[in-house]
Amino acid sequence: MAINLTVLAGECSRPAETRVLESGTRLGVVALRVKDTDGPATSVPVTVWDPPAWFDELASGDAVIVVGKVRRRFYKAGAVTGSRVDVEAEIIARAGKDRRKLITVTRRIQDALEALEA
User: Fold this and answer.
1) In which domain, by residue range, is 103 found?
2) Does any domain span residue 1?
3) Per-residue b/e over 88-100, b at no fewer than 16 CB within 10 Å?
4) pTM, entire model
5) Separation of alpha carbons 9 and 64, rounded Å
């Protein structure tokens, strides 16, 4: 059995950016600074499809919680094919502000743990 579930809690290391693709779909990008209890901090890129309205207001230092999946994306840059790894958010919530979303985060984690036990 395999599961691709990522849970991040951290602060934005830079303001969020939103782009509108040719299809009209909104794509949000933010980097989260996360830290293990005993290690250095690292910045993790997070992609949010059709982000909520408040996403554009995220600034450096704002705390958020993300539940999503690790994705490796490929792209062409001239004749070279490159790749990058990011977290594709299923749920994004402002820490301490989005109580309903935080409940949803907890349920998503519980569902994943139950699937592993089955």
Assistant:
1) 6-117
2) no
3) bbbbbbbeeebee
4) 0.82
5) 6
The sign of the CA dihedral 105, 106, 111, 115 is positive
31 neighbors 12 (Cβ within 8 angstroms): yes
CATH number at residue 10: 2.40.50.140
Q: How high does pLDDT run on average in the chain?
A: 90
CA dist., res. 93 & res. 55, Å (int): 9
Encoding tokens for residue 26? 């909104």
Q: How many helices (H) and strands (E) does the chain have?
A: 1, 6
What is the per-residue pLDDT for 45? 96
What CA–CA distance (Å, rounded) separates 101 from 107?
A: 10
Q: What is the pLDDT of residue 1?
A: 65
Task: Determine, yes or no, domain membership for 49.
Answer: yes
pLDDT digits (tens, 9 = 90+) for 37-78: 788 889 999 999 999 999 999 999 999 999 999 999 888 888
